[in-house]
Amino acid sequence: MYNGxxxxxxxxxxxxxxxxxxxxxYSVQNIRNVCLLxxxxxxxxxxxxxxxxxxxxxxxxxxxxxxxxxxxxxxEETRRQIxxxxxxxxxxxxxxxxxxxxxxxYFDFSGEVIEALQVSDAAIIVCSAKGGMSVGAEKAWKLCxxxxxxxxxxxxxxxxxxxxxNAAFDTLRERFGKNIAPVVAPIWDADKKxxxxxxxxxKRAFEAGPKGERVEIDVPDDKKPVLDELYNALKESVAxxxxxxxxxxxxxxxxxxxxxxxxxxxxxxDLSLFPVxxxxxxxGLGTRMLLDIIVELLPSPLEGRPLMGENExxxxxxxxxxxxxxxxxxxxxxxxxxxxxxSYVKVLSGNLKPDMQMVNSRTGATEKLGRLYVMxxxxxxxxxxxxxxxxxxxxxxxxxxxxxxxxxxxxxxxxEPIPFPEPCYSVAITPKTKGQEDKIAAGLTxxxxxxxxxxxxxxxxxxxxxxxxxxxxxxxxILSRLKSRFGVDAELSEPRVAYREKIRKKVEVxxxxxxxxxxxxxxxxxxxxxxxxxxxxxxxxxxxxxxAVPKNYFPAVEKGMREAVLHGxxxxxPVVYLKATLFDGSYHPVDSSEMAFKTAxxxxxxxxxxxxxxxxxxxxxxxxxxxxxxYMGDVIGDLNKRRGRVMGMNPDGDGNQVVEAxxxxxxMGRYAIDLRSMTQGRGSFTFxxxxxxxxPPAAQEKAIEAAKAMQDEAD
Length: 715
Known about the structure:
- By secondary structure, this protein is α+β, with helices and mostly antiparallel strands.
- The protein is 27% helix and 31% strand.
- An 8-stranded antiparallel β-sheet has the order 17-16-21-14-15-20-18-19.
- It is elongated, with a radius of gyration of 33 Å.
């Protein structure tokens, strides 16, 4: 019987069945794109591994600690035993293909989470039975709220020592109220050890068999009241999804199974209902019930959140997926390694086939599609077609970048960009072996193709290569990958601050350059007035009368000044807000030259600037910190230590406060790390340069000493 697959092979692993070849070709109604979200260490990768193993997608049950899971395949992930990038794990179950996107839980790799959310139609937020609603789960919930993404909650590790399902569930209920609907509940033995689970929706109970398979058992007598209570709560939630079901509920009639599913699907889709599932990825208990719920309750790509996009007229509109429409796909991730470059795509309409001609809406260029693949971790399986709603990859699309839209030339669409977070943590990077700067630059360029949350620049002013990203762990991974992939050892240091210098009083000085040689000599004589200006750029004026300095030497004097102000007399930083006036001087009809006058004005500069009360200016940035109220005191106290000025506080409408302050950039080097520590990862911030201000004496002294030390090192 046709059940939505074009070709379908049952893939269930238990004591009676063997693994068979996977066939990855499904209609859009039978595809589920689901991302796993939550705090690092809560078991997302293990859950994905459990799904794959129980459905025959992998021959063994991998473990992140052993470094043999499908999703954590990168050498850095294996070494650190954490997820660093989003991996795709396609799971075939009951006539559906579930594209499981396993995302990192550590905040430095939030860009990978954002990418996965862009192409997911639902989310599973993984919470541990040992902690309940962790910070990572809170942040995941907010990301889903912002995108109006349907979601369910999975309480993991329910069978481990010191786990407490009830406490974990209570934290969820306290946080989200009656919208939380438990559809799976654990069964304990006399020693409070979890031995099985109740499937509330189907009113059945299961325990683990000798080989980890699911074995149905009778619902224990002491659990029957619990089952009735949970089922009635589900019925009430279903009743609230339509007037017809509400009338039936109040008349005392039972709902049919189809009505229960219909109501629960509606509640999940309109975000009025969030199912709660529990289980153990290691034993496999609860995993199959989770798969049932994904298939039955979570939306297909046709029912998911439509993306916004621009049409050929530049008009913004919702892009609604359609299998019968012209082909269109979003490039949501790029992987570039020694095996080649893969552009991960979600097919939003039509079907993709190799060698198709597609327009890249970012560049306007026509691209010929390469080979198509379905990815399972690092394994690429070539396919002849990618169906609407499915997630796959295209090989060797060198000019295509993450965030690009590929569409049919007859209907060019540009979808909304992926909203990556702003870089908030900067470090200077230098090679351990001199002369390898170009290798670092080439490596960073390649790594940036995969990770758009960091950028890098060669700062000509501070003579440093500066990398900016999300945090110290991300920078450490970049260092490791530069070494392993590109063979260059590098080290990180705090970036130098780009100070400025200015003067505070007016002085008049002479600059005289006279040099006699065997032939023509060199002679230039200028009188300069240096005073504070009203613009950041150098203001050069001339007030010479009587031809004391011929006009043809004025450009040379100005050029000498412009070169001189690049290096101040205090610490060698550029001079700003300076007005320099040439008002007198003298010349020699034979020995004077442009070079002589240029040298003369630079002598005047070096002589006069120390007399003009020079001062160091430090860059000031505008800081906006978003934090829960409970951390306000710590954050304000910390800003005071950083010489910050708090300008105001405003609620953000989401239970947080936005603290606005102005802070010297010299004090912000480790702020991303310190804020994370102060707020347990709940705080976030943006920081942008606004202006320069006079640095206080202590800060000036510190900056001048650092500049001298840097100069001594260079010499």
